[in-house]
Amino acid sequence: MAVGSVEDKVGHQIRSVAGHLRSLGVPFEILAVNDGSSDNSLSIATLLTASVPELRVLARNVAGRAFLRGTSEARGAVVVLLDASRTVSFAPLGWALSRLKAGREAVILRGRYIVAR
Q1: How confident is the model at residue 111 (pLDDT cuts 50, 70, 90)?
Q2: Does an H or E element contain 30, and which?
Q3: What is the mean pLDDT of the chain?
Q4: Edge-to-edge strand order for the sheet containing 55-58?
């Protein structure tokens, strides 16, 4: 998750994504990557690590390259790229993950998500 200066949204976005993925019963991690944040967004994310154990905060500023950094640090076989400043739509994410679970090699959703094996 690319985290810019979104202190008013970042906590809700992280908790929302974590809750949804838990409800699907899939193992996951969330990487909050500093994408040029100049407010308290990363501090808020760091505080959330106590209640969201799947969360890792990558605090070094990589402005403009958050997705690249997050992808290189990800431990899983599937990577979902999210921007903390945008509201996440869970229906397409669930659809894509169900296709991957069914053995599909790649799923590309236009606009906001690229999910691939």
Answers
A1: low
A2: strand 30-34
A3: 88
A4: 2-3, 30-34, 55-58
Name the token pair of 99.
């296709």
CA 35 to mean position of chain CA atoms: 13
Q: Which amino acid, one-letter code, is at 52?
A: V
What's the confidence (pLDDT) of residue 112? 56
Please calculate the CA angle 70-59-67 and round it to the nearest 5 degrees: 20
Look at residue 58 in the predicted model and tell me its pLDDT. Answer: 98
Read off the pLDDT of each residue in 64-74 and give the average, rounded to a whole number: 94
Rounded-to-integer distance, Cα 47 and Cα 51, Å:
8
**In this structure, what token pair is assigned to residue 31?**
């990487």
Beta strand 113-116 pairing with 106-109: antiparallel
Asked if the model's pLDDT at residue 110 lies above 80, the reply is no
102 burial type by CB count under 10 A (0-12 exposed, 13-18 middle, 19+ buried): exposed
Report how far residue 25's alpha carbon sits from residue 21's, in angstroms, rounded to the nearest whole number. Answer: 7
CA-based nearest residue to 84, from 12, 1, 28, 20: 1
Tokens describing residue 50? 């106590």
